[in-house]
Each structure stands twice: as C-alpha cells, then as structure tokens.
Amino acid sequence: MPFIKIDDHEIEVDAGRRVLDIATELGIKIPHYCYHQALSSPANCRMCLVEQVGAPKLMPSCATRVFPAPPNRKTTIDGKEYDAVFYTASPVVKEAQESIMEFLLINHPLDCPWCDQAGECRLQDYSYEYGKGHSRYKEEKRTFPKKKLGPNVLLYTNRCIMCTRCIRFCEEITGTDELMVSERGGKAQIDIYSEDKPLDNPLATCVTDICPVGALVSQDFLYKPRVWNYTRKESVCGMCASNCNISVDTKQNLIYRIKPRENQQVNSFWMCDNGRLGYNRWQNDVDRLETPMVRRNGHLEPVSWEEAYDAIKNGLKSFRNTEIAGIASPYSTNEENYLFQKLMANAFKSDQISYATGATWEAWEAKKSPFKISEFKSPNYFGAKDVIGNRHKGEIIEKISKIQVKALYWVGGNLDQRLTDGERDALQKLQFLVVQDVWLSPITEYANVVLPATNYYEKEGTFTNASHILQWVHPVVNLMDDMKPEWLIFIELAKRLGGSLGYTDIKNVTRDMLANTPAYKHIKPADIGSQGIQTRR
Amino acid sequence: MATSVKVLKRPKLNLLEQTYLPQVMAGLVTTFKHVPQVKDTVSYPEEKWIPRDGYRGLHRLNKDEDGRIKCVACEMCSSACPAHCITIEAEVSPWEDREKIPKRYDIDLLRCIFCGMCEEACPEDAIELTEIYDFCGYIREDFIADKDTLLHIYDLTADGNYYRDLERSQKLFFTGHKGAEDREVSPEYTRNLLKW
Ligand code: SF4
Ligand code: SF4
Ligand code: SF4
Ligand code: SF4
Ligand code: FES
C-alpha cells in the first residue's frame, strides 16, 4: 500500500485511489468543478491542481492516482520516505487557483442577482475563497441566449464553465446520450444533439443538481425564493417503491424544491423527475380532505373527530366479527399498517385484513448505472406485504361480493385510485364502509364515514423499498389544522371502541412493529440510521 | 462603614446680592441674546422641517430611464434586513435585458427600523430611503407599502426633496393612499381603528 503525505497528513492508502478523494476523506478541501464522485474525471476545469513533489508541474488531484513508487523514485522528506507527497495550499497552488478563477470568470456574466444558483454556487464560493477579487479582462463578454433543453431543464450558456458534468451524466448514468459540446473554442457550448431528442429522460433534472454553477436550472425552481430562505428537511420520496432519499426545502409550510440526498445503497446521488416534481400535484392540484365526514341523507358532511369515531362505533355494532374486514394501504408507513392490523384484531376482533397494490406503471432502469424507478407507484408496497402478510385485497372483495363480509375499513392514499367493475359491485353490496383517504376518491363515493389521511410528506415512521431496505420517513410539512397523523387515528379509534392499543407515541410503535414482524425481527430502531437498513439477510 | 458628614455653611450675601437684581439681569441677557437668532422650531404641520440629504425615511422603488422598475427581485434587501420586513415574490421579466422582476414587493413599515441596510445591500440601486418622514395610516394594513405604493413614492420624490414643494407636502402622505380616500367607514373599520 502506498504511503503518502498530503499537507501535514501522513497516510497509507489503497493503490489507485484519487488524491482528491483521499484529501476529502482527510478533511482537506480541494476546490473542484468537473470531478464528481459518480462520474469519470476528464480533468478539464483545472481547479483541483495540487503540487506534487518531484513532478514537473501541478497535477489535477481529481485524475492523479497514488501507486507505490519504485525504490529509487521515493520522495524523502525530513528523513522519511514517501511514495508521493502533495501540497494542496502552497503558494504555487494558490496562484494557480487564482488564475483559474480569473480565467473561468472572463466570460461569466454578473447574473448573481437573478441566478437561481446564487447561494449554493461553487463559482461564488470559490471566488470568495480562492479568487483574486478583480478581473483584468476589459473586452466584451460573449453572450448566448438561454435555451430550453427539455421540458424540465433550462440552459444559460453564459454561466456555463464547460465542466461537462452534464454530458457525462447522460453518458455514464442514464446512458441516454442527449447532450454534447457543440462548436469549438470561445463558442463551445452545451447543446442537445437534435431538437427531436430533447433532454427528457426520467432523471433529466439531476443535471441541475450536479451543474456546479447556475448554467443548468430546473424549470420548476426558476425564480423561486432564494435558497438560503428555506428550512431543509430530510426524508425519503414516496412517489414509487424505490424510496429515493431526499432533502426537501420548505418555507412557511410549503414545499418549494426537492433534491436527492446521497444514499449509495438506494439512489446514489439521483432521483427521478417524477418524484422531484410530484409535490406540485399535492400542493396545487389536489383537493385534500381536511376533516372527517359522515354520510347523512346521502351526503358526506364534515363532522368533528369525536362524531366520526362515534359513527364508526355505532355503525359497526350490529356486525359479527367475521363480517368485518380491513384493507390496508401501501401508502401507509409500516407503523400505520401495524397499528391498523392491531386495531382490526383488538377492537373489531377480526383477522380479515389484506392490502391493496396501489398504482403501478412501467418500471424504468438507467442503462449505465443501477438506478431503477420501481413499477410500484406506492412508497410502501413491500412493507405492507411484510407487515400485513402476503394477503391480497382480492380475497376480501370476493367475500364482500358473496356477502360474507358486510362492513369494511379501507385505508386509501392513492391519488390515482380506480375501481374495477367487480370492486364497484362489491362496494355497493357493503352495508358499512369506513374510508381513510387523502381526497374524495372513487371509494369515498360508497363510504359511510370518511377520515382524512396524510401523504408521505406528512408521515412519520418507516417505509420498506423495493430492495427491502427499511428507512425512516420524516414529516417535512405540518398537518393542516383539523388533521391527525394516521397512527394517532388508529390509537384513538381503538380506545373509543374499547380495545386500547397501549401506545401514546410513535417511537414504541416502531419498536413493536419491528419486533412483531417476522421479516424485521432482527432489527432495532437504532439500527435504521439515516441510510436505512437492509431487511433481508 | 463610617459615614462622614460635611456640614455646609449658608454663604453670607451682601446688600446688592440680597436684592437678586444682578442674577435676574444676567438671565435676561441670555434670553435677549437668543431673540435675533434663527429659530429651530417649526410650526408643524403648517410648516415642515426639511431633512438633510441622506435622511432615512419612507422607502421608494427606483425606476430606470425608461420608467421600468429597477428591482430584479434578487432578495438581497430582504436578506440584509435585520427586521425581516421585506417580502418579495419574483416573476418572469417582460423585458429582454433582465431575467426577473418582483411580482410582489411588500415592506412592513411598522416593523422597519429605517436602518437603510436594504439600500446598502441592493446591487441594482433599486431600493432607496427617501426624506419622507410624516406618513400615516388608519389601520395596520396601511403600513404595508406594496410595489405600487413604493413606485408611486418614487414619482413623488424623483425631482428633488419632497418637502421643498410645500404645497404638495401639506397633504399628509397616506401610505395606503390607494384605498385611503375611498375606503368606506364601516362598523368593522371603526372597530379596527379602536383596536389599537
Ligand atoms: S452561476 Fe454562480 S456566479 Fe454565475 S451568476 Fe449564477 S450564482 Fe452567480
Ligand atoms: S452546463 Fe453546468 S454541468 Fe454542464 S458543462 Fe456547463 S457548467 Fe458543467
Ligand atoms: S430600512 Fe432596514 S429595517 Fe427597514 S426595510 Fe430596509 S433593511 Fe429592513
Ligand atoms: S430592491 Fe434591490 S436588493 Fe431588493 S430585491 Fe430589488 S434589486 Fe434586489
Ligand atoms: S476537478 Fe480536477 S480538473 Fe476539474
């Protein structure tokens, strides 16, 4: 193993590693633009130059790898022999950094006041930390019009520093090859190969995350409030069963932007546009249910929680245990499904519980990386399967059709809920239906009592993804006034029905859910951590 | 702790001093010295004090040569504002030469401490504090100066000191000028007034 020295740190490292990576691990900051951990390193920005003792000129640390030196080529410093010695902040390095910054800014516009990258822009940060503070360039700057590369991505060529991260993303991650450099020299610019093939692959907006400057911006985030005004919260995406890790920027209880958060087991650095932009639908398009409702004279009328609980209690009184069934939701957390199961068992004395599949459509796989968008468009289909057991809702629908089951508690959550003709017939035959849903869906048409449900931006608990990785879900926005978290609904309802579940907060629910679910028996809540835990051994 | 007491003797006054006349005269000299001097007091509101340049009063949003709003909604001012009283929402600019302009630009004048940080932070010289000090309103909402109000203040102050034109400044400036005149005096409005 090569024994090297970087600044004051001496370290033995695996052969073939990049100096930039080693330095980052040691806590030494080397400024860089073109290098990204998940991509190849063309070493074209030259911002990461470091001094290597014995080398004729400065070396790009992103592309310089360390190897054991032959005995006659070792570097000796203060009587100690090293395979390589690097200095990251020596005067020559600093001078190089200043010059590179000046060079990159030659044609750079003074767009910061209206550039959406401002505040998280590497060019700004590095100008401040490594720049000269002034420019000697007096000539006219080159200008290009802005351009729409695809439905979600805009390019401001003026701000581009030609690091080619975006091109490499399309080549090395999605494998869709939409981007290229067109023209040469001062006219060089990022472009799509042809107008017929815009940048619209399912991961397209990820290029705006990796663009170190404000050249590529997300259409959705254009002109939104400044980045430093947000509260950033971490959670996982609920738009499909892949459960990409996300950080959500919120302001005054509204979501303004969702960005992927690194998790090498799950989503690497990426997320799909669907998940990134999905919050818009919840925030702007859907008429959310906010209060419980009870059907009186054929109409659903808003009532208080107490009244709704009483309506459920009275409505279910006349049925025998075998006539009551429940359908759990793949949109619920594992905790909610566990409590729902307990509610059915303790309060209704029924073990007829199953889960719905939720929406599904075609899966998508990146060609050049393991990133996959699951075909299950519910966040917790696999968790529901683990927690509820492998019982599908078809059985229950059949029993309803045969009038063996007369009362049903259906937990929804699906914004694309559709009913088959068979299901419609079955629901019509029901004598009592409780629906817990996020909107007035096709199922609530038949409901006697409707309870407002939460979405995955409001939930707290755990989801299990398509690769059976269990992860924490955190609420990123607060519930509207009259709403209650769904786990609390189950606890309160059980108490009202005289079968207390014995919980007051969600922490203990997670513990018991893990302990009582065969697939998760070996997991403790503390094991889950910020990166989740694989449940299959 | 021991306390030491100093006993003062009443001074003995001579005859002239006992008449108190020299002291009265000295006082009157001071008084009459001030009579011919320039008075600092103004009879507000018939007369108005004219602030010096650099006075930090009511804000305005500047316009460029073409009469377009200069602000580009960069939020530097609201970021710099220690009182957090500026609210900005951006929209796409209708003009070629800039990206965005404010759709909404509100300053809560009741929170503002007139520090001038916004003016200092602005990269476009778009926000400026004017010399207007006597603005008023009837309800709290009157003190939310919106984009149109701030642009209107620019028109009022663009051609020099607002108070030099006495006739104009005789009329008290209503921040909520747009609605102030024709607002109906409803029971609810009166109640609002009485609330504070
Ligand atoms: S890319 Fe960075 S430096 Fe360039 S205008 Fe945008 S924020 Fe400013
Ligand atoms: S658009 Fe951004 S990511 Fe692409 S080359 Fe330019 S600076 Fe790099
Ligand atoms: S004067 Fe000061 S307190 Fe008032 S808006 Fe400007 S920055 Fe804020
Ligand atoms: S007034 Fe100036 S600082 Fe404030 S948003 Fe407008 S341009 Fe930016
Ligand atoms: S990061 Fe090394 S040359 Fe760009």
Quick summary of this structure?
The complex is a heterodimer of chains A (537) and B (196). Chain A is of the alpha+beta class. In chain A, 25% of the residues lie in helices and 20% in strands.
Overview of this protein structure:
The complex is a heterodimer of chains A (537) and B (196). Chain A contains 15 helices and 27 strands. Chain A has 537 residues and is of the alpha+beta class. In chain A, the strands form 8 sheets. In chain A, strands 17-16-24-23-22-18-19 form a 7-stranded mixed β-sheet, sandwiched between helices. Chain A has a 5-stranded mixed β-sheet with strand order 2-1-7-3-4, covered by helices on one side. Chain A has a 3-stranded antiparallel β-sheet with strand order 8-9-12. In chain A, a hairpin with a 4-residue loop joins strand 8 and strand 9. By secondary structure, chain B is of the alpha+beta class. Chain B contains 8 helices and 7 strands. Chain B has a 3-stranded antiparallel β-sheet. A two-stranded antiparallel sheet of chain B has the order 1-4. The site of one iron/sulfur cluster has 13 residues of chain B, from helix 3.
